[in-house]
């Protein structure tokens, strides 16, 4: 029971979202540093950017609550 309460703690949720956002950002930076991206890497970069934006919106919503 205590574990489920901890996992719903807003600070923990914010930390998890922030960590995931940082991981996605690191991958985007890695891809951006390449001189050439394959079509699949280009698609991956677009997907990651969209995921980052969605996480950023979730983070902002969590922080404003």
Structure characterization notes:
With 65 residues, this protein is mainly α. It has one domain. The protein has 3 helices and no strands. The relative contact order is 0.15.
Write the layout of secondary structure elements.
Layout: H1 2-7, H2 10-32, H3 39-64
Helix pairs in contact: 2-3
Key attributes of the depicted protein:
65 residues, mainly alpha, 3 helices, 85% helix, 0% strand, elongated
Number of domains: 1
SS summary, helix count: 3
User: Which sequence of SSEs, written as H and E, runs from N to C?
Assistant: HHH
Find the structural class using helix and strand composition: mainly alpha
Count of distinct strands: 0
The helicity comes to: over 70%
Shape: elongated
Distance between the termini: 24 Å
Q: Largest sheet, if any?
A: none
The low-pLDDT segments are none
How would you summarize this macromolecular structure in one to three sentences?
The protein has 65 residues and is mostly helical.
């Amino acid at each position: 029971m205590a574990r489920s309460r901890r996992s719903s703690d807003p600070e923990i949720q914010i930390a998890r979202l922030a960590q995931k956002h940082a991981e996605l950002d690191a991958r985007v930076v890695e891809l951006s540093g390449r001189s050439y991206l394959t079509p699949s890497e280009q698609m991956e970069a677009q997907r990651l950017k969209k995921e980052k934006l969605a996480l950023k919106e979730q983070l902002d919503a969590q922080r404003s609550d």
